[in-house]
Amino acid sequence: MLSGLGLPQLAALLLAGVLLDLLLGEPRRWHPLVGFGRLAQWLEGRLNHGRSRFPRGLLAWILAVLPLTALAWLAAHHAGLWLHAVLLYACIGLRSLREHTLPIVDALRAGDLETARVRTSWIVSRDTADAQEAELAKAGAESLLENGNDAVFGTLFWFLVAGGAGAVLFRLANTLDAMWGYRNERFDLFGRTAARIDDALNYVPARLTALSYVLLAGSARARAWQCWRSQAPAWSSPNAGPVMASGAGALGVSLGGAAVYDGRLEQRPPLGTGPAATSGDIARAWRLVLHTTLLWLGVVGAGAAFFLLWGHYA
To answer: What average pLDDT is seen over the chain?
Structure first.
């Protein structure tokens, strides 16, 4: 382990960080990722201009991510094991996914389209002002499936690799991709570094997430696997494709397809198979993310128990 921690220690700290997130949720004030977002905006405003946008984007990424990751490593190294769990809590977003998506379910079930549109606009980049129930349900389910990887499982993976500093590195890199990784005139060159680094850091976690969705699909495992293998290659994102295709297959719903971005209708490749998503599928997607979290905790815990027993009897 790059963190220098043993698997039993990492397992205990992983559980502690997840429990802190479930018990406390996001900080209501002084959220570290909000502060980081402001830093990223400041750097982008000062460096994203001129002809040399690509090297300036690389410089901005280095200035935004590496000092804070190094600071997290030094702090955890000197403050004690407990800080690893606190850093994981600051980076993971399991409870946040629930708090941002289940109110959409409540609004749709109450027939309150306006509230559902506003709440959905908080979690997706597509236009929702005129979206109908099926479009909002689809957007909510897609966001949950994809962000299960970005906000939870990728963070857990890199925590296991490098402790609290690994979680910080991944979450900051993923945040910069969400802010800068757009293929438009403003960000195509400047944000290319952020997009490519996030693709690299997410490659293994995304496939472990997709595999987890398949394993938890029950009788629909073959369908989830087939959706992953046949539909994911059509998506431009090398990591979102496997995650959302396997998740849609596990849920047995049709996602992807038409969506409006910046006033333009885009036809995206299909995801999954079956009926169009409904409000209940947002709740089902949340349960899939929660059960995947429990699966990962169980696997890591079992590995730690085996390590301790093997060491005891060796």
So the answer is: 93
Query: CA of 106: how far to CAs of 109, 110, 307, in Å?
Result: 5, 6, 44
Instruction: Tell me what pLDDT residue 182 has.
Output: 84
pTM (2 decimals)? 0.94
N- to C-terminal Cα separation, the chain: 21
> For residue 271, is pLDDT > 90?
yes
> CA-to-CA distance for 58 and 186, rounded, in angstroms?
15
Element (DSSP H or E) covering residue 259 = strand 254-261
Q: Helices (DSSP H) in 25-52: which residue ranges?
A: 32-47
Q: Is residue 290 one of the residues assigned to a domain?
A: yes
Between 188 and 273, the more confident residue is 273
Closest CA to 202 of 239, 166, 233: 239
Q: How many domains does the chain have?
A: 1
Is 29 contained in some domain? yes
Task: Give yes or no for residue 72 having a pLDDT over 90.
Answer: yes
* Residue 82 domain flag: yes
- Residue 34 within a domain: yes
Q: How far apart are CA 254 and CA 252, in angstroms?
A: 7
Cα-based distances in Å from 9 to 6, 15, 68, 308: 5, 10, 23, 11
